[in-house]
Each structure stands twice: as C-alpha cells, then as structure tokens.
Design brief:
The chain is α+β, with helices and mostly antiparallel strands and 402 residues long. It has a domain at 121-348 and 358-382: Jelly Rolls. The protein is built from 13 helices and 18 strands. It has helices at residues 3-13, 37-40, 49-52, 85-90, 93-109, 122-136, 140-143, 185-194, 199-226, 231-238, 306-311, 366-376, 383-395; strands spanning 16-17, 21-23, 45-47, 76-77, 82-84, 112-116, 155-158, 172-178, 243-250, 262-265, 271-276, 282-286, 289-292, 300-304, 321-323, 331-338, 345-346, 364-365. Helix 6 (122-136) packs across helix 9, helix 8 (185-194) packs antiparallel against helix 9 (199-226) and helix 9 runs antiparallel to helix 10. The longest helix has 28 residues, at 199-226. The structure holds the ligand C=C1C[C@]23C[C@@]1(O)CC[C@H]2[C@]1(C)CCC[C@@](C)(C(=O)O)[C@H]1[C@@H]3C(=O)O, 2-oxoglutaric acid and fe (ii) ion (FE2). Fe (ii) ion (FE2) binds next to loops. It catalyses: gibberellin A53 + 2 2-oxoglutarate + 3 O2 + H(+) = gibberellin A20 + 2 succinate + 3 CO2 + 2 H2O; gibberellin A12 + 2 2-oxoglutarate + 3 O2 + H(+) = gibberellin A9 + 2 succinate + 3 CO2 + 2 H2O. This is Fe2OG dioxygenase domain-containing protein. One of its GO terms (biological process) is gibberellin metabolic process.
C-alpha cells in the first residue's frame, strides 16, 4: 500500500464525524494490495458519549421502534419484596419462613426482589460507584485500552457499535470475570488491560465481587429453601462460580423517549445482583406493562436469570426488563451476574421434575449459552427458548453434505 494512501486512510480514520462517531483506526484492516481496499476495510464507528450526550441530532441506529420506546410518563412503580437477608439467615424460624414465602411468590411471578441488611460495607459500595464515575469520564482512547473483542463478554464496549446494526443501547459498559477460586483475577485483568494506574479500580472490584459472591450464595440458600430442595442444593452448585461483573454507564441523552440505555431482555445468567444509583431507570415488564423499580441506596435489586429459570425447571421466572435514560444526568448501575462454572451441566434437581412438571429445558452448560449470546444471538425476551431449540438441533445428526 503506498505510504501516501496509507496516510490518507489514517487521516480518514482519524476523522471525527460531527455526531461523535469516531472511525477507529484500530478496526481498520489494512489491505495488502490496493485491489482489495474497499472490501478489506472494516471500519467500526465508535460511540463517543462525551460528544453525543449533548446532541439532539443523534444517529438513527440509536432510535428504537415505537413499540419499544419508553412511555412519555414515568412508569408506575413495581413494589417488590424487601428481604432482610441477614436477619433471615440468622433470625428466628418464623421470620425465615415468611421471607422464604415472599421470595418464592415474587420469583414465581416476575423474578425480582430486593435485599437489605446484606452486609456489604457502605464505604466499599461508595468506592465502587466512585470508580465507575472515574473510569467512564476518562478520555475515550484510555477506556479503549480495555476494548471488548468481538465474541468476548469482557472488556469496554460503547453502545456496541460494530456489534449490532440497529437499536443500539445508549450506554458504555466495562465487564470482567470474577471467580472465587482465583482471587487475583480481577486485579490482574484490570492492570493488564488498563494499566498500573488503574490498580485501585481492580482492588475495589476484587473486594466488591468477593462480597457479591458471598451474598449470591446466601440468596441461593433462600431460593433452595423456597423451592423445597433445601438450603444446600443451589449453594453447592454455585460454590465455584465463574461470574461476570458489569459496570453500566448511561450518559444523558437529548432524545430520552426514543432511545434505551439497555433494551428489553431477560438476563441469560443465573442471578443478577444490581446496585443502581439514585437516578432511576430500571423497568420491569409485568402484567402487560413497564413498571419502575425505585432506587434504594441501602438495597440491591436481585433478579432471576434464564439459567436459574432452567435450574428451577421453569418454576422461577427470568423476567423482561430494560433501562431507560434521561436528558439531564448520567445514570450508572453495578450488575453482578452470578454464573456457574463454564462446563457444569445446568439441570434442575429431580424433585422439581415429575409427570405434572416435565423438563422445561434440555441440559446445557453455561459456556454454550454464553457463547450463544456473544456470537450468535442478541439476548432478548426469548433467548432461552431459541437457545434450547438451537442446541437440540445441534445435537441432531447433521445430514451428510452431498
Ligand atoms: C451474559 C451476558 C450478556 C449481556 C451481559 C450479560 O453478562 C448479562 C446480560 C446480557 C445483556 C445485558 C442483555 C441485553 C442485551 C445485551 C447485549 C446488552 O444490552 O448488553 C446483553 C449483554 C451482552 O453483552 O451480550
Ligand atoms: O442498568 C440497569 O438498571 C439494568 C441493566 C441490566 O438489565 C443489565 O445490565 O442486564
Ligand atoms: Fe439485565
């Protein structure tokens, strides 16, 4: 490639389209010869929140169809049970029975509840939020040091430009793995991708994820109890978890009634423990309408994901939810997604399967479902149903190619 052409292409790729879409040179595949120039260039627009959050003339890829866009008036509130998890596990049997009943009822209906008296240190929680502000307000090139690679679930992503062609979520995310069996995993990942000057973010989230894992196992005890399979069953299943921590950052948007921070979906994971800041924006779809979960600084929002729905043989529901944005202030949420070890077989306990309750989903591994959402299918409200058909079809003997 002639040096003149290469430098011209570089200046093209450095071109910042006035809507804040940066043509990112790192995504340009430099062709070996001029002849393949057009086909070989894969140019990914990149969402520069610092530019777009002040603009009304946003790219059409961010505008969602009429049926998905937020209702003009603030959604009515969904009141979900507030579980005193600390008291429950160490309190008197009568209180524990009441909590078990409330959790079971909520999980059979919409899969959402909140936990308080969770034992997470308030200073650690405040640090975790401060880390999100510090990270996402950095210049784009610095955030892109941790750029998510196609097909992978970890890393920095900005509205998934390049991953999806339309209905782009109005958010930036930073996701990384957390495994209790590897206490250095979070710090090592953050320092390796973002650099030594971000070690403190790694240390804060290593502690945060360790606390999330502890809380997840306590919640698994409650879920086991409420399903009548005993406190130990699911706790044991998730002792060695391979979970995902995701930091969500939703910049202000000047067209908040036409865009979504996170589109309608059910979490493909097992259990989500989410702490939202005081801005509000999480909405759950139940009884035919979107309803908001009001933020509580002292509470974590907990919801059942697709994988746990399969582990409960469909008894507990993985429910449709989304995140709306606003035109005034950024919103952030810290989402810990509990996931089993990659190759553990996901199947319900025998006691939840009988003639009246046949198997709702085939056996699968979390690795296969995660792979499905990262490489083949954008998680939505029917991921588990589509995935189930997909894996059954994969197991059929493939017709010989003629
Ligand atoms: C396994 C996962 C896929 C998504 C992150 C998560 O860890 C759990 C939630 C999933 C997601 C948020 C559901 C909505 C669509 C999605 C593409 C997103 O908006 O971020 C999903 C995540 C993903 O990166 O695929
Ligand atoms: O930000 C929120 O409140 C919800 C985010 C969410 O549903 C997710 O990341 O799966
Ligand atoms: Fe979600």
């Amino acid at each position: 490639l002639s040096s003149e052409l290469e430098s011209a292409l570089h200046s093209l790729c450095q071109l910042r389209i006035d809507l804040g879409f940066l043509i990112d040179p790192s995504f340009v595949v430099w062709p070996s010869t001029l002849g393949f120039l057009v086909q070989s260039i894969m140019v990914q627009p990149v969402f520069d929140a610092a530019v777009l959050s002040g603009r009304a003339d946003i790219p059409s890829q961010f505008i969602w169809p009429e049926g998905d866009s937020p209702t003009p008036d603030a959604a009515e509130e969904l009141h979900v049970p507030l579980i005193d998890i600390g008291g429950m596990l160490s309190g008197d049997p009568a209180a524990a029975a009441e909590v078990t009943r409330l959790v079971g009822e909520a999980c059979e209906r919409h899969g959402f509840f909140q936990v308080v008296n969770h034992g997470i240190d308030a200073e650690l929680l405040a640090d975790a939020h401060r880390c999100v502000d510090n990270f996402f307000t950095m210049p784009l090139p610095e955030k892109q040091r941790a750029l998510r690679h196609p097909g992978e679930s970890c890393g920095y992503a900005s509205s998934f430009t390049g991953r999806f062609a339309s209905k782009l979520p109005w958010k930036e995310t930073l996701s990384f793995r957390s495994c209790p069996s590897d206490p250095a995993l979070v710090v090592d990942y953050i320092v390796a991708t973002l650099g030594e000057d971000h070690r403190r973010l790694g240390e804060v989230y290593a502690r945060y994820c360790s606390e999330m894992s502890r809380l997840s196992l306590e919640i698994m005890e409650v879920l086991g109890e409420s399903l009548g399979v005993g406190r130990a069953h699911y706790r044991r299943f998730f002792e060695g978890n391979d979970s995902i921590m995701r930091l969500n950052y939703y910049p202000p948007c000047q067209r908040p009634l036409e865009t979504l921070g996170t589109g309608p979906h059910c979490d493909p994971t097992s259990l989500t423990i989410l702490h939202q800041d005081n801005v509000g924006g999480l909405q759950v779809h139940t009884e035919g309408r979107w309803r908001s979960i009001r933020p509580r600084a002292d509470a974590f929002v907990v919801n059942i994901g697709d994988t746990f729905m399969a582990l409960s043989n469909g008894r507990y529901k993985s429910c449709l939810h989304r995140a709306v944005v606003n035109s005034r202030v950024p919103r952030k949420s810290l989402a810990f997604f509990l996931c089993p070890e990659m190759d553990k077989v996901v199947a319900p306990p025998g006691t939840l399967v009988d003639a009246a309750n046949p198997r709702a989903y085939p056996d699968f591994t979390w690795r296969s479902l995660l792979d499905f959402t990262q490489k083949h299918y954008r998680a939505d409200m029917k991921t588990l149903e589509v995935f189930s058909s997909w894996i059954v079809q994969q197991q059929q003997p493939q017709p010989a190619r003629t």
